[in-house]
Amino acid sequence: MKAPSIIHVERWTPASVAATTGALALIVILAFGPMLFGINGIEKLTTLFIYVILAVMWNALAGYGGLISVGQQAFFGLGAYAVLRLANFGINPFLSLFIGAILVAIVSLPISSFMLRLKAGEFAIGMWVLAELAHLLVNLDGLINGETGTSFIELNRYAAPIRHALIYWSALAAMVGLLGIVFMLLRSRIGVSIQAIRDNEDAAESIGVKVFATKRIIFILAAGGAAMAGALWVASAITFQPKTYFSVEWTAYMIFMVLVGGIGTFEGAITGAVIFFLIEMWFGAAGVWYLIGLGGTALIFALFLPRGVWGTVEDRLHVRLLPVGYRLRLDHETDAPQRDGPAA
Amino acid sequence: MTDWINSIVQGVLLGGYYALIACGLAFMFQVMRIINLAHGSLAVLAGFAIWSIAGHFGISPFLALLVVLPGMAAVGWLLQRGVLERSARAGLLVPLLATFGLAIVIDNVLFEGYGADTRSLAPFIDTLAYDSWAIGNIYIGQLSVLIFAVAVAMLGSLSLFLSKTHLGRAIRATAEDPDTVGLIGINARKVNVFATMIAMLTVAIAGMFLGMRATFMPYSGGAQLVFAFEATVIGGSGSLWGTLIGGIILGVAQTVGAQINPQGFLIAGHLVFLIVLVARVSMPFPSWPMLFSWLRRQPS
Amino acid sequence: MSDILAVEQLDVRHGLLQAVRGVSFSVTKGEIVAFVGANGAGKTTLFRTIAGAHRPTGGRILFEGSDVTALPDYRRVQQGIALVPEGRRLFMQMSVRENLQLAGEVGRPGRWDVKAVLEVFPNLAARINAKAGNLSGGEQQATAIGRALMTNPEVLLLDEISLGLSPAAVGRVYESLKALMETGTTILLVEQDLNRALSVAHRVICMLEGNIAAEGPVEEMTRERIMDAYFGLHRAAGAGA
Fold this sequence. Notes:
The structure holds 3 protein chains of 3 kinds. By secondary structure, chain A is mainly α. Chain A has helices at 14-31, 33-36, 39-64, 73-89, 93-115, 120-139, 160-187, 189-199, 201-206, 211-237, 242-245, 249-261, 266-283, 288-304, 308-317; strands at 6-10, 150-151, 239-240, 327-331, 339-340. Chain A has a single domain (29-288), classed as ABC transporter involved in vitamin B12 uptake, BtuC (Orthogonal Bundle). In chain A, strands 1-4-5 form a 3-stranded antiparallel β-sheet, with no helix packed on it. Chain A has a two-stranded antiparallel sheet with strand order 2-3. In chain A, 47% of the residues are buried. Mean pLDDT of chain A is 86; it is low at 333-344. Chain B has a single domain, classed as ABC transporter involved in vitamin B12 uptake, BtuC (Orthogonal Bundle). Chain B has 11 helices and 2 strands; from the N terminus they run ααααββααααααα. The mean pLDDT of chain B is 90.
């Protein structure tokens, strides 16, 4: 085998250029959503965007940070609660959505200081306990009326079509924004740190990777993202019952989406969200059997297909759509196989 | 004043129940480094099984337990061979995901079978559910004392089993170094199956007492898992007897919290848990909490 | 004399690395065979594969005539193959007695019990109830060997028992083993200390990069011959000291 004469380091491949262009085009089309789709379609898309946010955020935590949390519903509920409190205080309802998410992200900073020191299993359930505690504390707020809950009444001053459109655009903006943040994170130095931590935490630490700081960034991002999703949900649903928002069922959905889509891959989380959205649309009415199916599918994927749908496709076809890794292209006199470097 | 003393006494006795539900979780964690997120749901499953059998045949839940025990042992075998063994090979995170999925399946299958109504085993045990001894103004529930005694007996038996029997030694060795036990003739896989089966036996007993001292419904598993976990962690995740101390601390926190505020029961428990967790990870110097947990740490 | 152990064309991989390449040799009952060679030559991998702790990718292992290649490690112990692993791998949280007891419960008939082990390693008697993690290097090595002996093996594999021990401790261990070696137990040992190896072995096998570079009865294996094989040197015929 001849020695390579030139080695190129590439970030973009033809496939990834095509995919990224396609994604941008799609976003532009979606921006015109309220003109193109009826209220029903807009509401459904809003739900899909929220699912994508939840999936990508849980994937960031578990797939990139290696942190399995069974308690992200804490931030989901707190995000909704923050919105209600801010709106009640007099702040514009739509502004409250974003401010609320940011506030929850700030609150997650001190939380991360001790939660991140826990070992895997303790962290998982510890987050659940945090969610339970958040639920109980929110119940104490008079505004919420305990389990009866309350409503996002400040939204009522907007007429229905405008309201739905604004919520839709907020959701689209939030989704694109969060996806963009994750994308930039993966392409940055932090992205490489993430890969190193994922492969071998101790080795990464020993070569100077700031493991704790990196995990912290992911934790805060995931918290803020989940809060954003909760804020959007309460805007969409109008009603807020603590029991629904702080339910561990949200974690079940997140786990399903990420596991089935493909843990640790950017495209996988999105795929999982789409799959979950479709399944809920078709089978949601089946009640308990729907939940059994979700749990059973998550179990089967965990045992037999841990790489998820996208992960398996990626492995078989050696396709990477989004340019988040590095590729080495070796120039030989004869044909040389391309080999992938680290990627999300 | 007597109210507070009563609270504390109830809390200590409640700790006995928590130790009971926690010891299986702690045992599996100690032996296999796995946190079984389906733990609570399995206890509820056992509770429902006992409820069905006791109701159908008109027998005491204690007798029904005798039927359910081998059933739960079989569940343990299935759990280990079907789920835990396979998922443990894929890394530390997969067992968490797999057992979570399993918990959802169990909860909802129970819901499908039994509906949303809460059930209880109290009707089957006559007055034992509420009989108590009175010492002055302090009331001590007989059932609570029984549960506490069973918890102590269980922890004692497990400790003796681990230190004195061949299988117990094999379990300890496999927990420490699963790759080397094969070199002295021990089948690590079989040992782990036994360990899970033993854990499931404790879960069955805990499920029965859950039904006796309180009510349960298909979705009660989550709360039981959280309590079991909190008791385990407060007591120091490495030790069996720690679950009793952790359980007592949790129980007392809860009952005292309830005295302060009706919502205080759960809030106080979670707060104490988080405080202990924070203290444990952030205290670099020898201090009261660290000393306490050091004292509690059992030589395995 | 029949072969108690035979290895045929054994291939073993460590991840992507070929650690053992087509190795073949046989051992007769009662023989003591020393395996020497540089680090990475494949000796430990070979021993672990014979003991069943590692799967070969090709070849066979025959024990007392029957093919044990497919047997898992705990079944091979029940057949009579015992390995004292590199690094000893004692159960540190358990006492010396418990480490020995556990191995003794394998159920193979034989003369080894805790008392017999203490006769070979009398320095353990005082430490019998101490946690293995609290022992000195030499005591740990003695316990590890004793633990393997408790399974009443037909073939004993000793992997680097001098590793990490002071010269005095090594001397004591080998002194204790002298009696054992005279009882006719078949022993295979990996030994970095060439002098030690030559002093106890009947036969020497030198490995290099997964292959057997040289082997022969200890009388024929001169230091020179071993050094050549160790380092992979080839001397031209007729040259040399």
